[in-house]
UniProtKB/TrEMBL annotation:
Main EC class the enzyme belongs to: isomerase
InterPro entries cross-referenced by the UniProt entry: ClpP/crotonase-like_dom_sf (IPR029045), Enoyl-CoA_hydra/iso (IPR001753), Enoyl-CoA_hydra_C (IPR014748), PaaB1 (IPR011968)
UniProt EC number: 5.3.3.18
Name assigned to this protein: 1,2-epoxyphenylacetyl-CoA isomerase
CDD domains: crotonase-like
Top-level division of the source organism's lineage: Bacteria
Species this protein is from: Bradyrhizobium ivorense
Membrane-crossing segments per the record: none
Keywords: Isomerase
A Pfam family of this chain: ECH_1
Protein family: Belongs to the enoyl-CoA hydratase/isomerase family.
Record-level Gene Ontology MF annotations: isomerase activity
GO BP, one annotated term: phenylacetate catabolic process
Amino acid sequence: MVSDLVLTDVRDGYRVLTLNRPDRLNAFSGEMHAALMAALTAAESDKSCRAVLLTGAGRGFCAGQDLSDGVFTPGETPDLSLQIEKYYNPLVRKLRSLPLPVLCAVNGVAAGAGANVAFACDIVIAARSAKFIQAFAKIGLVPDSGGTWFLPRLVGGARARALAMLAEPVSAERAEAWGMIWKMVEDAELMTEAHALAAYLAAQPTDGLALIKQALDASETNTLDTQLELERDYQGRAGRTADYAEGVTAFLDKRAPRFIGRA
């Protein structure tokens, strides 16, 4: 069944989505794309879901595209742009536009599109054994799934070019040092840390976090003046939420806030 390719675990305030093709290092097939998009849409539709935790089953997060899934036939010239347009671009756009935080826990390898899907998430933590690989150049391709957009912004132009052209693996420790990810943790602690962080995010003012996502993405292309105006407008929207009133009231009362999440 398609749903078996992405497992959904509904927790208190958040959902865990697990890529579930461990025998293929969770490489993307068309069916797994469909399952993941359906799971993300279901999370977005559920008002009680205030965060998403994305991870992989088995010994890897995601090895990128499954090259045996009809994308290459000997003797034929494929049009890979169709695969990108149908699956990868909508997935990256969905992750960036979800009105709730998306946490990614990278266990093992994240290669090709698998690495860039991780980078499309809001916060990335990785096990010490994890590796990030822009594997595209090894088969004559270009980084996709936002790779040419995310990499320069995360690690700078010089490193982005070398990573894309040399296709060398980056350890989790180096990925943290370079600012590619938020944090590296020991393998045995990865999911404990991930669940704690997801639970924390699920208890925060979700509408405000969604506006933060939108503002940071907009800042990549806005001028300072345009960004200042956007901040003004977003702050006006945030200030009208019940969670802002609760946050200030709790601060004045010297107690922990009880945010309600999405309106």
